[in-house]
Amino acid sequence: MSLPPLSLYVHLPWCVRKCPYCDFNSHPAGERDQTDRYVRALRHDLKLEATSGRPAGREIDTIFLGGGTPSLFSPSQIAVLMEAIGSTLSLSPQAEITMEANPGTIECGRLCDYRRAGINRLSLGAQSFDRGMLERLGRIHGPGDIMVACEEAAQAGFASINLDLMFALPGQDPELAVADLQQAVALSPSHISYYQLTLEPNTVFHSRPPRDLPDEDVAWRMQEQGHGMLEAAGYRQYEVSAFARDGQFCRHNLNYWQFGDYLAIGAGAHGKITDPDGGIWRYRKPAHPGAYMQQSEAGSYREAAQQVAGADLGFEYMLNALRLPAGFAEQDFEERTGLPFRVLEEPLRAAETSGMIESTAPARWRPTTLGLRFLNDLQAQFLPH
User: Fold this and answer.
1) Which of 83, 128, 206, 226 is deepest in the core (most CB within 10 A)?
2) Helix, strand counts (H, E) of the chain
3) Do the Cβ atoms of 178 and 146 come closer than 8 Å?
4) Cβ–Cβ < 8 Å for 181, 163
5) Residue 274 to residue 263: CA distance in whole angstroms
6) Could you give the maximum distance between any two Cα atoms of the chain, in Å?
7) What pLDDT score does 31 carry?
8) Contacts of 264 (CB under 8 A, 6+ apart)
9) What are phi and psi of 59, to 5 degrees?
């Protein structure tokens, strides 16, 4: 069993305000600025990761700064963080380094400074170009902010820019969904994440669902027409909700979907690591920023670390790999899990019989169009008994 690629996820937990659909570990920023203290806590966390044995001298191939709203942190704070990462871990010279940003929090000239700090890929949370939709979603930006952010990102030298865009929004019809995509494509980002609004537990929308959400048939029509538009505009679908031009896939997210390893720092950050003996572990940091900073400053965490049981490994691999239209190779499954491929034989044949998965070459499998449409049902077939 060979060790997979290694990434680093950094969680920056504050937002201007919490969106009603968001189930991420994010918190309203409030009046007290704790960002300097939080960056110091991240630096302590990095040292703990480095001494834990988890990196084991391996090279970091990708970094992702997520949140929350990382663009609430100043370029100088991001520069301090990036310097700490570079001096603590072994970073690939070709590393992909992504930062999420809210178009409503980007001050003029800041993107050049983020670029100088080491960020080379930007992910902008557009969500919609319709002002009314943005207000329903609780977003703090307007359509013009998205366009300005894209222009400034290009001027700052970002060759890799992602736009997050949602469909099946409250009060949205297929024509409005088309208009959103047309405006996104017109900005010519290298990558578009196009995904359906879902009502996640512990969100305002889950407890008080909007009454004018599109039904399942309308949402499916939006998805089909959206995928067709993206393909016609030169965007290739490489994950169930991710599209890229010129092969500019998000390498960090691909590492997740291909069952790679990732270190985690920050409040509530989750990590996965394969040890030299082939054991696979998942761990997470304290979720609340206050508790995280206290424990980081004290030099230890009450971490929830758990080895993934052999019976769960096949399901965990398939949970990720089935999101990829190109599918996976049997050899990759064996290398990433340490299991023989025959453990999947029974559910695999059942999924093949139901038309949800197919073999495209010897020892290679991919989900069908039907399997991608009913992805949750396909994934569930690989749950351990």
Assistant:
1) 128
2) 15, 17
3) no
4) no
5) 11
6) 59
7) 66
8) 8, 9, 11, 270, 271, 283, 284, 285
9) -85, 140
- ∠ CA(59), CA(242), CA(188), 5° rounding? 100
- Among residues 259, 257, 255, 280, which one has the least CA distance to residue 54? 280
Q: What tokens appear for 250 in the block?
A: 């998000």
Please calculate the CA angle 333-279-90 and round it to the nearest 5 degrees: 90
Scored b (16 or more CB within 10 A) or e, 219-251 reads beebbebbbebbeebebbbbbbbbbbeeebbbb
Give the pLDDT confidence score for residue 213 in this predicted structure: 96
Quick check: helix, strand or coil at residue 280?
Answer: strand
d(CA 73, CA 153): 17
Report yes or no: 12 and 72 within 8 Å, Cβ to Cβ. yes
The structural domains of the chain, ordered by start, are 6-255 (3.20.20.70), 310-380 (1.10.10.10)
Strand order of the sheet with strand 357-361? 328-329, 364-367, 357-361
pLDDT (tens digit, 0 to 9) for every residue of the chain, 385 residues total? Answer: 679 999 999 999 999 888 999 989 898 887 678 999 999 999 999 999 999 889 988 999 999 999 999 999 999 999 999 999 999 999 999 999 999 999 988 876 799 999 999 999 999 999 999 999 999 999 999 999 999 999 999 999 999 999 999 999 999 999 999 999 999 999 999 999 999 999 999 999 999 999 999 999 999 999 999 999 999 999 999 999 999 999 899 999 999 999 999 999 999 999 999 998 889 999 999 999 999 999 998 888 776 789 999 889 999 999 999 999 999 999 999 999 999 999 999 999 999 999 999 999 999 999 999 999 999 999 999 998 7
Tell me how far apart the alpha carbons of residues 51 and 48 are, in angstroms, rounded to a whole number: 5
d(CA 213, CA 33): 37
User: Quick one: tokens of 164?
Assistant: 């997050």
What is the structure's pLDDT at 1?
Answer: 65
Site of tokens 């394969």: 274
Joined tokens for residue 43: 């630096």
Cα separation, 299 vs 154, in Å, equals 40
Quick one: which of 242, 250, 236 has its CA closest to 194? 242
| Residue 163 CA: distances (Å) to CA of 27, 174, 354 | 23, 19, 35
Whether omega before 268 lies within 30 degrees of 0, making that bond cis, reads no
